[in-house]
Description:
Blueprint: E1 2-10, E2 14-15, E3 20-22, E4 33-35, E5 38-44, H1 45-49, E6 59-62, H2 63-66, H3 73-98, E7 104-115, E8 130-134, E9 137-138, H4 142-149, E10 157-164, E11 167-174, E12 176-178, E13 181-186, E14 189-198, E15 203-205, H5 216-226, E16 237-239, E17 242-243, E18 249-250, H6 255-264, E19 269-273, H7 276-284, E20 289-293, H8 296-305
Parallel strand pairs: 4-16, 16-19, 19-20
Antiparallel strand pairs: 1-5, 1-6, 2-4, 3-15, 7-8, 7-14, 8-9, 8-10, 10-11, 12-13, 17-18
Helix pairs in contact: 3-5, 6-7
Amino acid sequence: MPADEFIFTPDRAKPLASRVVVEGARPVGDESLYYVDVHVRRTTLLERLLPFTRPSGSTVVPEDALLPPGISEEERTRQTAAEMQRSESIASLVALRELGYEVDAEALGVLVVGVFTDAPAAEVLEDGDVLVAVDGVPVRTPAELRAEVTKRKPGDDVRLTVRRQGTERGLTVGTIATPGDPERPFIGIQVDQAADIRLPIDVEIDLGRVGGPSAGLPFALEISRLLGRDVTDGCRVAATGELAFDGSVVSVGGIEQKTIGARRSDVDVFLVPAGENADEARDHADEMQVVAVESFQQALQYLTTTDPKC
């Protein structure tokens, strides 16, 4: 019988070779760049009652941590598939721009991809809304939105400028305390980047049924390898991290399982988002080298100018 909890278990790192196809590719180095994923499923009742039956390296999380109120498993699957598509576009933009290509791209605002039914936003915002300003201050990325909202205190109202079906309107949303952080305001939405991106060359990425945005960094690195940058230098390199529109690397979930998966695949160097992700990765890396990065530019520079220990 399934329990009301989810379990994250490690999956082995997998090569990106043949998963990314770039027009005019001239690959450099060997095909030793890997992405990492996490298996996510409901726990069984046996695993809940007898923790020793859980797979090694697993983490159990409560249902509401993965499925906030109003978000079903089917909706989460749809969201993660859409996140993957947006991640592919952002990764292509970031990589090509760093390699000197002229990319026609514009950050349009912050896309609402989920609204929690028990949060203030439930009565005001809808999936598909694009937020473009907070109390009159323009916001074009999720990071800018978070920076503006966190200037408030829980209980304060926030005036949002929202683009819905081509029309802008002003909407007032209340805030509450973020679960687990009583000092941080929370309006109750899941967001992603809204952008108009037109690439100068064709880039195709296909990871099958893998979803979510956390493969953005390895996608961009593989595009770079295919276009003439040696990012492996004879090493087995894995990476994880969501890429933002400006190339910054955003933290991801399941870092313990991803680190274990990379280690089990005999990866030499594992690139991860700086901060808590990097700290946690080092706790589970054993002898594997963990490199903390804040941006794609930093990751590319490290791999192309540093002689990693392999």
